[in-house]
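Quick one:
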Amino acid sequence: MNISDHHRTVAAMPRLTIVMPLKGRRLFTFRFLRYADALRMPYRFIVADGQVNEAAARHLENSRETFPNLDIEYIRYPDDTGFGQIGRASCRERV
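Output:
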């Protein structure tokens, strides 16, 4: 397999999507996203935020400026009491 065949194969493969349900821990989240951005991870990230911090939300809503090498979709949810609500809401929205 030569290089061009490899690139066509990789381009034809479906991309991995990483779903990140958030409830607090914004410093850890940003540390991970900075690391992913530095590595230019080719994955799609869905960030589902169930405990919104306005400063963090602004960075994630403008993720192209903060993390120019990542494909991030930021979804805000009202504050809730558990990850189960975020997961159920995320699944309902995708259907």
